[in-house]
Amino acid sequence: MSKFSNYNFANQKALIRVDFNVPLDKTTFAITDDTRMKAAIPTIQKVLNDGGSVILMSHLGRPKEGPEEKYSLSHLVKHLSELLNGKTVLFANDCIGEQATLTASMLKAGEVLLLENLRFYKEEEKGDEAFAEKLSKLGDVWVNDAFGTAHRAHASTAVIAKFFSKEKRFFGLLMEAEVNAAEQVLHKAQKPFTAIIGGAKVSDKILIIENLLEKATDIIIGGGMAYTFMKAQGGSIGNSLCEDDRLSTALEILEKAKQKNVQIHLPEDSVIADKFAADANTNTATSNAIPDGWMGLDIGSKAAAHFSEVIKKSKTILWNGPMGVFEMEKFQSGTKAIAVAVAASTENGAFSLVGGGDSVAAVNQFGFNNKVSYISTGGGAMLEYFEGKVLPGIAAVNE
Ligand code: AMP
C-alpha cells in the first residue's frame, strides 16, 4: 500500500494540486472534455472518506496578465460537484488573500473548496517562494496529484514542498499510478521491450529515442519522422515531411542503435497522397522511393504487418506518437493496426503504456482505451520522464 493510501486524513485539510486544465467551450464555458477532472476524483474521495477536508488548486489555460473570465475555475464548480455525487463545492475567487484564507480556515471535515486559477499570479510559473508559502498556509498537508504539470518547477507543483515536512507531502493516487506505470517501463521492463515512436518531428523525439536506446530491445519509428530517416539513408521521399537539419541526427541514431544492438524498425512501405488533405488521391509506395509530387501520410500494409509482428513478441511496450495522419480517415489504417497489435500483446500478458497527446487521442478514438495496460494523462510530463529527466513535481514530494 502506498503512503497516500495508508495515511488517515481525518481532520486534516489536504491542499491538493490537481490538473484541472480542461478545455472549455469559448462562448458557453462548458467543459468539453472532463478526463482530467475525473482522474483526480479518487484522490479527493479518499481524503473525504477519511473525514478530512479538501482544498483544490489548479491552473487553467494560459492567462497573460492577471484574472480573465475565460480562464476562471469558477466554470468548473458545478461539474465538480456532479462528479462528487452532488457534494457542495465552495469556491474562493482568489487562490491567496483574505477570502481564500478565511474560507480555508473555516473548512470543516468533508467539505471541498476550489481555489481560483493559480496562474492569475505570474508568481506561480516563476516558482515564487513567497507565493508558494502563502498557498502552503491554507492546508495541513500537501498532495501533488497533477502529473500533467510535474515537469514544471512552479510554485504549487514543486516549490511549495519545502513548507511541508516529508511526512506531510504526498503523491495523490493519479500521480502514483503515472509514476508506477512509467517506472514499470523505464526500470522494470521485461524484454523484449519495444518502443513505438511516431508523430511529426524527429526533433521533438530525439531525447526520448536516445534514452530508449539504453533500455529498449526494439524501436519502431513511424509517422512523419520516419521520412527524415529515409532521406538520411539516401532515399527519395517526394514531398513527405522532412527535417533537413536532422539528417545527421537520424544517421547517428541508427549508428548508436547498431552499437547497442537495438533493432530499429522503419516502415518499408507507405500510403502516399498527392496533397495533405482528407480528399487527396492516394497510392502506396516503398518508403524510400516516393515519387515527386507525393507525400507519405501513413505506414503501408507491409510495414503495419512487420511492426505488428514485433509488437506481438514484446513483453513491454511504450507507445508515443501516431504512425500517420490518423485524424484523416484515409491515413489511419497504420495507427489502427498498431493499436490492434498493442491490444493483442497486452491480452497476452505484455505491459503496455501509451503516453503523449496524439497516441492517447488515437487509442481513445479507435476505442482501445480499455485494451492497453496504462494510458498516461500527462503528455509533456510523460515525454520528459522518458527522456530520463528528473521531474520537479516528483522530486519535490520525494526529497
Ligand atoms: P506529435 O505531436 O509529434 O506526436 O505528432 C502528431 C501529429 O503528427 C499528428 O497530428 C499527425 O497527424 C502527424 N503526422 C503523423 N504522421 C505524419 C506524416 N506522415 N506526415 C505528416 N504528419 C504526420
How is the secondary structure organized here?
Blueprint: H1 3-6, E1 13-17, H2 35-50, E2 53-57, H3 77-83, E3 89-92, H4 97-106, E4 112-115, H5 122-126, H6 129-136, E5 141-144, E6 169-171, H7 173-186, E7 193-197, H8 202-212, E8 218-221, H9 226-232, E9 236-237, H10 247-259, E10 263-265, E11 269-273, E12 282-286, E13 289-290, E14 295-299, H11 301-312, E15 316-320, H12 333-347, E16 351-354, H13 357-365, E17 374-375, H14 379-386, H15 392-398
Parallel strand pairs: 1-2, 1-5, 2-4, 3-4, 5-6, 7-8, 7-15, 8-10, 9-13, 15-16, 16-17
Antiparallel strand pairs: 11-12, 11-14
The structure holds adenosine monophosphate.
The main sheet comes to: 6 strands, parallel
Count up the domains: 2
| Approximate strand percentage | 15-25%
> Which sequence of strands runs across the widest sheet?
3-4-2-1-5-6
Under the CATH scheme, the architecture of the largest domain is: 3-Layer(aba) Sandwich
Inertia-based shape: elongated
Q: How would you describe this structure to a colleague?
A:
The protein is of the alpha/beta class. The chain has two domains: 3-172, Rossmann fold, CATH 3.40.50; 189-386, Phosphoglycerate kinase, N-terminal domain (Rossmann fold), CATH 3.40.50. Helix content is 37%, strand content 17%. The strands form four sheets. A six-stranded parallel beta sheet has the order 3-4-2-1-5-6, with helices on both faces. Helix 9 crosses helix 10 (247-259) and helix 11 (301-312) packs parallel to helix 12 (333-347). It starts with a helix and ends with a helix.
List keywords for this structure.
399 residues, Rossmann fold, 2 domains, 6-stranded parallel beta sheet, 15 helices, 17% strand, binds adenosine monophosphate
